[in-house]
Amino acid sequence: MDYKKKAHSVYLLTYHIVFVTKYRRPVITDEIGDFMKEHAAYLCGRFGGEMLSAETDRDHVHLLVSMPPDVTPSRLIGTLKTQLSKEVRANYQEHVEKYLWGKAPFWSNSYFIASTGTTSLEKVREYIASQRTDEHKRKYVKSGKYSRKR
Length: 150
Description:
Elements: E1 4-5, E2 10-11, E3 14-21, H1 30-46, E4 50-56, E5 60-66, H2 73-97, E6 107-116, H3 121-129
Antiparallel strand pairs: 1-2, 3-5, 3-6, 4-5
């Protein structure tokens, strides 16, 4: 993956997110799953991020998303869970009511999130530890470009 750029940052932040339905009820059909993936991609775009991959099963959804650093994971998850629940209930209310009665929430309160990366933790640790070695010190050469004129 390529690094993303904004006005004041360069980043590559990706998250693997999993939501499960309340009581692990098998509410999600193929049609609802396709709708969720499309709507989640739209919501990620609204945050300035993108959906990299998504898949659903009868009782859970997996999302792989890339987000800018100004979007906190908790805000992203809260928005995704709330909006997906509202939209699914609005469009598939009859089907949802077969599995979740009354005002029962669509999603379980819990969720899974893990940051993903292109480098192993051990490599990052090695890189950080090597910063005080001579080979990693930056070399500044005075060019005279900003010297005072006399």
